[in-house]
Structure prediction request, 784 residues.
Amino acid sequence: MTKVTSILIVGVGGQGTILASRILSGVAQKVGLDVKVSEIHGMAQRGGSVVTQVRYGEKVASPIIPLGQADIILAFEKLEALRWLPYLKKDGSIIVNDQRIDPMPVVIGAASYPENAINYIKAKFPKAIVVNALDMALQAGNGKAVNVVLLGLLAKHLDLAKDIWLEVLKETVPAKHLETNIKAFEAGYNSIDKK
Amino acid sequence: MKLLTGNEAIARGAWEAGVVVCTAYPGTPSTEITENAAKYPEIYAEWSPNEKVALEVGIGASIAGGRALVAMKHVGVNVAADPLFTVAYTGVNAGLVLVSADDPGMHSSQNEQDNRHFGRAAKIPVIEPSDSQECKDFIKMAFEISEQFDTPVLFRITTRVAHSQSLVKLDERQNVELKDYVKNPAKYVMMPANARRRHFAVEERLEKLKDFAETTSLNRIEWKDTKIGVIVNGITYQYVKEVLPEASILKLGMTFPLPRKLITEFASKVDKLYVIEELDPFIEDTIRSWGIEVHGKDLLPQIGELLPEIIAEKFQTSPLSAAGKTIEEENLLADAPETPVRPPVLCPGCPHRGLFYVLSKLKVTVAGDIGCYTLGSLPPLNAMDTTICMGASIGNAIGMEKVRGKEFARKLVAVIGDSTFIHSGITGLIDTVYNKATTTTIILDNRTTGMTGHQDNPATGMTLKGESIKEVDLALLAKAVGVERVVEVDPFDIKRLEKVIKEELAAEEPSVIIVKRKCALIDTESDKTPCYVREETCIGCKICLRIGCPCLIKVEQKVKINPTQCIGCNLCAAVCPTGAIMKEGVAND
Prediction:
């Protein structure tokens, strides 16, 4: 079987994970690879835990990443990073946005938010990349561009040419938000060294 | 090549197949089929009031000579079952394909029924694609089969096929002329004498379809190692390709009727035969009934999705097993902190929230229904007692009252959305009046079909094709069926809402309260300035947390509001006993 790259994008409904997966899959397609994407719509969108799976390579069969087989997890929220950790390969990479969004059981006091999520992830995956994408997005001019900041980080991490990322970004986001989004992408891209 | 979801590919395939009519009632995971079909100018597309009407429109189109696609979620087929079982008798003129989008794992459904049973029960072919390219190619073949065998075709997809994207090669639209319309009552008027004759045609057709199944390219064998032979359908084909790359595979694109000779031949050439299918042992049971030894549900669950790791776990030969243990299998995450669940919630500014807060406060019994508002059943609102199916709330409430009496009905409401009310709530309301129930029906009119992603309906004044129409007047409709007490309330005015609910509950006659306010996600007119908590005035009573708003965050003993999420609906301000919550920009007094 030829090498398939499997990326799990996780977050909370409304954080823009779907746009992120659309851009990532667009880049893989432009490079000439086979791509499959799986995402769940419907009830889960309403502020629930959301996950999108993107897989690319010479030939991809299953759109679903088996447990323990993700090469990369891109997490938009730290509790969600923790929740999906069993999907990561032992030598996989994880990029976590250090943002906390309380789920309803925490809001009403029926459960508690894991205080040490980031430390735990770092202990298990010492090369985990942890960033404050919200601050970076705000600096770029729009708090809603968290998803594009994180894509910038992912782009730096993957072996897919940067100019193709920018090309797909231009094709995907509306023209009036393009400048902010490019800034956000660059902020993410330039915030880490190559793996 | 274009990256398309299964649903987009089905719409594209229908267009390429020369389809002229596409009808549906929205339902996850089927909704985007019709939304995408509507974008083609050559296709007349509509949101029907419910799935039964959608199929009836499709049947009419087919009889009149135009190819028709009808789409719905699995439970929608229950609603459309009446016309389905009889159009199976009449057959078609132009091709007629019914898409059933099943939801193994119940990502967004109230059950996970396996709709292949409908195909067998109605004696019509069932076709199952396994990726977007097949969605497009197979839907075109489905129209050919429909016309060749004079039958409606059940096109069954599952959530993973509907919502996964893969690359699709696009083609041009075929030029398909309308077929002549010829009056033919012996074929299309299903009164007993005609229907008896048609039943013979149905059984003959089934025999011909069995022969067809042996040779169609929908079914194919991929020979590899013959130690293991696996029969697959739909998405499990993709999982097995990855999990068991060395196994020989019989891929069934047509799962009813089954190709007995092909399966028998495949079985005879492999050492061990498995069927890997999600949900019921639909293929497996038939094969076993032929006296062939076969394994499937003795190993694999018939509940939920058959994800790749579930299949891999049962087969030691899998490269996934060979790749070594995963972090979880090695128990490396055993010490992980507990992760609280993150259930979906009513959105910030959702107009349903105020109603459920009041119902929760009044401690009434709530017969619920299907829609975003089903989320009112979750903590902290906990304001729903039943949810069965589309339109069930009103009938459920009547039954409760008939058993427990009029006193019970003074603390009992039925809650139903605008689109759901039109779908199948109106008949329940007629029953309320006709059979002298006294319950209060609350229609949550948020001016859209919310949960499925904002589709128009007969009460919104817009069609799927974007035309303005005269909207159904829900108040007038309720009056027309005989409800004399009909009140309209803005759910953001919770004081009045509470007063009205108390009055209508007290009245010993049927009443309807229309709680009207546009869904927050499509409301472009209201002031969206976020609220904030004046720390010095907040006494930390946490009454505001009872409304279940995701924007409210408990900080130490007090509460704060997340300004990036809040859209300033003011509901928290309305319940705050000390007036500590204000709109941003409003000066402290």
The beta strands of chain A are 4-12, 34-39, 49-57, 70-75, 88-97, 129-131. The mean pLDDT of chain A is 92.
